């Protein structure tokens, strides 16, 4: 997966780090795909979840 926009890439990395911090010890991850309270844009959140679902 390539991210042409470095800002969106950093936002995606921030999202993954946050999820790892919150749920790192769990074997399953259950959360909403789009967190409206997050500072990460919904477009970036959706792209990350799409990439993760393709990997499964």
Task: Describe this structure as you would to a colleague.
- By secondary structure, the protein is mostly helical.
- The protein has a domain at 1-17 and 35-56.
- It has two helices and no strands.
- It has helices at 6-23, 42-55.
- Helix 1 crosses helix 2 (42-55).
- The two termini are 15 Å apart.
Tell me the layout of helices and strands.
Layout: H1 6-23, H2 42-55
How is this structure best summarized?
With 56 residues, this protein is mainly alpha-helical. The chain has helices at residues 6-23, 42-55.
Main sheet overview: none
Residue share in helices?
55-70%
In total, the number of strands is 0
Radius of gyration: 11 Å
Low-confidence stretches at least 5 residues in length (pLDDT < 50)? none
Global morphology: globular
What is the average of the pLDDT values?
A: 86
Order of helix and strand elements from N to C terminus: HH
Assembly category: single chain
Number of helices: 2
